[in-house]
Amino acid sequence: MSRLFGTNGIRGIVNRELTPSFVLELSEAVGVYFNGGKVALGCDGRTSSPMFMDAAASGLLAVGCDVNDLGLAPTPAVQYNVKASNLDGGVIITASHNPREYNGLKVLDRSGVELSRDMEVEVEKIYFEKSWVKSDWKGIGVRKREINVLENYMESIKRHVDTDRIRRAKFRVVVDPANGVGALVTPKLLEQLGCKVHMINGNIDGSFPSRSPEPTPENLRGLVEAVKSFGADLGVAHDGDADRSIFVDESGRVHWGDRTFAVIMKFFLERNPGETVVTPVSSSQLVEEIAKSYGGRVEWTKVGAVEVSWRMLKIGAKLGGEENGGVLYAPHLAVRDGAMTACLILNIMAEAGRNLSEIVAELPSYQTVKEKVACPNDLKQKVLEKLREEASGLRVETIDGVKVWFEDGSWILVRPSGTEPVYRFFAEAKTRDKAAELVSKYRSLVQRYVSETN
Ligand code: MG
């Protein structure tokens, strides 16, 4: 059976791969999966989102689901609504950080977490069998506009930080939501926490006129300039649906997500010693070092935020994180949440009474090198077996591709891409040269295996 869901929901180029008629039919299948229950529906600020919202609402209503229409909302706000209102599930129209020509759907379980792989397979089965029956006139669901969604979501975040302490610190913060839906929440929330907020790229615009919705350091030059010129304590950048946050310190330096996650982890483990922290195998060695120093434990998962969420729910972990700026704080919600992450960072700065640059400087420093190497899909499994053989005798983790640790603490993760005919390499070491050396060694290995197996 072919698959509809990729690593992060369903994504495609608007009106080429993802059409309103497809979204309508898929939403009928999703509605059948939810058994005609109550479903939240929200969207990001893309130009195609209203069109797909209506298609999704029609599909859900046609099979008898009641639809809570949340309108424009950050992904975690929709997820919060599903959990807090005890709904049967949710659908979000968003392509997160993808370029403007894309859109997509995230389907949420009643916990607010995106469907697990097994659940997705059930939806796909319903979709491809096409055996459902549409409701008659009196069985059609009710679409109702939900109010106070964003306010309730912000109240939940505030319950999990020391609001008085943050207010007393009177921070000056620049927020860059990439012309996305983060603009609806983060500035208001930080103002409620006593911050002086400046927003850049704050009008919601699905053409993303100012920067790409992917918060990479190259895309954050505007934020860096703004932090410096306003003399701000912090810069916060979200991706297009505001489930991730990347931070800029007061000196204008962009810190990648692995470092800010380590900062949050340290703060969390100091207060909750012995807890387990969940993170994908692609995360920095920092995660393990901090866990060791503060009596915590690390649970590795496959790459992907949904994998982290489900593992957290399964083992009852409170904190999870990804290197790309996704932090999951389960006492609020076991999903990535950009605004929650920003408030945790402000809480840490307020409590430490120090700048973010000083807090980050205390962490051990590592250098990362990433690369991809071509490998035909049908050879991926064979190559993986060879890589595992090659690593025998070393410390390895094989939950997703193969991750090999070396004695000096450096490591490399080599994993087949789920979407492209390539192998992805992540290496980390004390120096960039050492990380690059690891990548080059494994690049030759993979290339050799590909030519031998061909
Ligand atoms: Mg996102």
Number of strands: 21
Shape: globular
Largest sheet: 6 strands, mixed
Q: How big a fraction of the residues is strand?
A: 15-25%
CATH class of the largest domain: Alpha Beta
Assembly category: single chain
Q: What does the radius of gyration come to?
A: 22 Å
Under the CATH scheme, the architecture of the largest domain is: 3-Layer(aba) Sandwich
Structural class designation: alpha/beta
Bound molecules: magnesium ion
Distance linking N and C termini: 27 Å
The percentage helix is 25-40%
* Number of contiguous helices: 15
How would you write the strand order of the largest sheet? 1-5-4-2-3-6
Could you tell me the mean pLDDT?
95
Provide keyphrases for this structure.
454 residues; alpha/beta; Alpha-D-Glucose-1,6-Bisphosphate, Chain A, domain 3; 4 domains; five-stranded mixed β-sheet; 39% helix
Characterization of this structure:
- With 454 residues, the chain is an alpha/beta fold.
- It has four domains: 10-146, Alpha-D-Glucose-1,6-Bisphosphate, Chain A, domain 3 (3-Layer(aba) Sandwich), CATH 3.40.120.10; 152-248, Alpha-D-Glucose-1,6-Bisphosphate, subunit A, domain 3 (Alpha-D-Glucose-1,6-Bisphosphate, Chain A, domain 3); 257-340 and 351-361, Alpha-D-Glucose-1,6-Bisphosphate, subunit A, domain 3 (Alpha-D-Glucose-1,6-Bisphosphate, Chain A, domain 3, 3-Layer(aba) Sandwich); 367-453, TATA-Binding Protein (2-Layer Sandwich).
- The protein is built from 15 helices and 21 strands.
- The chain is globular.
- Bound molecules: magnesium ion.
